[in-house]
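User: Could you check the structure of this?
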Amino acid sequence: MFIFKFILKKNLNKSMFKDEKKNPDYFYYSVPDLQNIKIKNNLIESIDYYNCSKTIKFYKNLKYVPKILCVITTQFKNLKTKAIALNQTWGRNCDYIFFFISSNYKNYTDKPYLNYAYLDIEENYNNLTIKIINILFYIFKKNMVFDWILKADDDTFIIMENLKYFLKFKCPNEPVNYGFVYKNREKNLKFLNFEFNSGGAGYLINRNSLQVFINQYIENKKFCRLLTGTEDVDLSLCFSKLKIFPGDSRDSYGLERFHPTNFEEWRNLNKNDYNFKNAK
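Assistant: Sure, the predicted structure tokens are below.
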């Protein structure tokens, strides 16, 4: 297991708000030629994103480490608490990290130094789906080198070393996303037995899935519903139309690796709890 929601209870040291040395070129890369895989001295030099499931054999002795781009959705009011705590803890182990907030706060000076990305979208529940879609377009336009996008909220805690080990044995070209999978069993709700990744637990989108999604959305925006607020359901519906489905992220014991609640709530789950009844 490596992902839990967390509750921030203590104020952070003011030294965390000091400006760090800025590096404006840190997040900009060009995409290399990834047509062929090359293994030399047990190091994977490049990956065939187009046929890696048949070409790559991920052995434990290979020193390949997946590159993860962390996308953190947050609000201005949480920057000095949840966001800064995340950035100073597990966020340091992301290969790249962006904190997405409303562009209304772009010129505010009273905020800690983080790698911000701004969206021209009002912060409210009904805009969550279109916010995530705009984030995917933002990342796509950066033309960065990564294997997986990790979308997480600012109250999520992730053990990145375990996550990268899990992804080391996953092909970033397969039509699959990973997270805590719900299977809707509520008969009074739409999409009975539809499977989707929990937004609260965080979820993973690989680079190939991002490319397929962007291409389809450019051709036909109507294939995704936008103004519902249930971005985890909405996005999974969008991907399912592209034949991209949630994969099984459980360990060899059948235990969950992603968790949509904090540790205390998860430990005390009962059979009537939504997270128990609707888990895959």
